[in-house]
Amino acid sequence: MSQKKPRILVCPLDWGLGHATRCIPVIRSLMKAGAEPVIAADGPQLHLLRLEFPGAEFVNLRGYRVQYSKRIPAGIYLLMHLPRLLFNVYREHRKLIKLITTLDIDGVISDNRYGLWNNRTCSVLITHQVNILPPAALRVFSPVLRAIVRFFIRRYHICWVPDLATTPNLSGQLSHGKALPENTSYIGLLSRFDKSADNNKGLNSYDIVAIVSGPEPQRSIFEKILINQLPPGEKKCLLLRGLPGDTEIRPIRKNLDVAHHLPSAMLGELLRSGPLVICRAGYSTLMEIAMMGNKAILIPTPGQTEQEYLAEILDKSGIYLACKQGDLNLRSAIEEAGRRQGLRFHQENQLLESAVKALLEKIKQAPETGRYRNRTQ
To answer: pTM score > 0.85 for this model?
Structure first.
């Protein structure tokens, strides 16, 4: 009789597509290690992962469905809606109990969803924000926010930080500089792109690839700004709208093509050819361009302190160019970005694969009761 494959529920946050894209290498590692991933998501995240893993098992799990305000800075807006966010955490925590039973789940990997832990399974939280940075006006609340985040981290058996423990690293003080909870470890940068893949000779090459992402209404505002300014001169440009579904590349004017979304293999090939990338300063996007070695112009989502912090430190270090959305002038920005050094991490997936193997071994050695009591309290 063949041994049952461990069934692992993988659940990305629905806060832009980045949490879903960085789950792609995690899901691949689970499959490689002999586990059976069950993917729980909704909306664009569910659609994207269905495209990447058409043969996988899926379940609809309602997300937080956050939308930013056009007028209120993102950080302040989220703090104003903290009770609603905490209610969503409670609701998904209750939902998980049913999913574990009905889907016969052995383990859970949650990407930045704080409510998906339970003693009946081995639960893992993926987050690069161990130390959340509030807006400057609310910096006095930093200890409170850090305590809340660490409270939830300790509910999980394991916390994976997608970064390197050493310098240089990508997340800065978001996951360095303060002692980590005891159940936390670094698993290296996560990228869905295969750097060793064969070149796809059928793909066009581009001088610039602009990637739109993030929650509304800022996603659409960013897209409109880019469409108004692309292409700069004679440079050949591709605009990706960040809307999973249609993958056809269409021309809309001379030297400007547009696609809703591209599969990972196609986008990886385009980035591998070395175009300048124009994008948000979302952490998942930064991991991908750092692994591919592209130069970049970073336009953080206005008021989103995590992106503003990451863009600022990478700009000051001379790695990428950071621009404010409202002040963006692509012609001058592209010239300056070309003088920046860029970043390339030469890293394989050993850290992630070791973490996945350790998780599956922990599940295999679970007590007969199926209850895991060794969380950090």
So the answer is: yes
